[in-house]
Amino acid sequence: MGQCGITSSKTVLVFLNLIFWAAAGILCYVGAYVFITYDDYEHFFEDVYTLIPAVIIIAVGTLLFIIGLIGCCATIRESRCGLATFVIILLLVFATEVVVVVLGYVYRAKVEDEVDSSIQKVYEEYNGTNSDAPSRAIDYVQRQLHCCGIHNYSDWRNTRWFKEVRNNSVPISCCRPGIVNCTGSLTRPGDLYPEGCEALVVKKLKEIMMYVIWAALTFASIQMLGMLCACVVLCRRGRDPAYELLVSGSTYA
């Protein structure tokens, strides 16, 4: 009975190590996605510390490759030292992922205030040229999120660009898709996106943080199962005198 239980635990543990390798790739992808998206929205969210969870999750993903290798070797060879090392590393990574979850919630709560304090300044710096970073950021966001202005397209009336151009129009990036010959004129509001960008930018950034939080929570749960199985193998190996190492046959052969 004890031998059967140990074998089952080892099977699950080997399977979990394979999952760790897959998880490593997924975590690195999530972290990279956060970096890429932040680059698109950095003008609306200036707190670079927001990237800390993404940095940690990429580091955890890289470490999971090593953990999976250690776990597989330790399980196949049934090394007590290797399994103990495996459990300790998993415990440290688990604690790190808990930190990621906490930081994710902290920075997610700050998103709205950060965007609210910076978006007005970004729109005020708009000059309509592609060489200007704030202008590119605004045009990108308005096209991607299908929005116009901060709260709606009428916000453009208060910008320096609108007063300098003096043609009673908003940027072409405010034009809805499918509208022929849209010039951004405020005399044809039906051609423009009706929704403002601030709420949509906040929603997008909060979604990104939730990706990080859910990824960390999911793989933290898997790691708990991995630690449990490794502990079962370690404990039963020490208590069961009839237990033989799988590698003993090859050792004495």
Automatic annotation (TrEMBL):
Describe the function of this protein: Regulates the proliferation and migration of oligodendrocytes, a process essential for normal myelination and repair.
Q: For this UniProt entry, what is the primary localization, expressed as one broad class?
A: membrane
Q: What organism is this sequence from?
A: Paramormyrops kingsleyae
Pfam families xref list: Tetraspanin (PF00335)
Name listed for the protein in its UniProt record: Tetraspanin
- Record's keyword annotation contains Methyltransferase: no
What does the subunit comment say?
Answer: Interacts with claudin-11/CLDN11 and integrins.
Q: Which GO CC annotations does the UniProt entry carry?
A: plasma membrane
Topology in the membrane?
Multi-pass membrane protein
User: Which spans are transmembrane here?
Assistant: 12-36, 48-71, 83-107, 208-235
Q: What protein family does this chain belong to? A: Belongs to the tetraspanin (TM4SF) family.
The record's section on Gene3D superfamilies has: Tetraspanin (1.10.1450.10)
Q: Which UniProt keywords apply?
A: Glycoprotein, Membrane, Transmembrane, Transmembrane helix
Show the coiled coil region(s): none
The subcellular location is:
Membrane
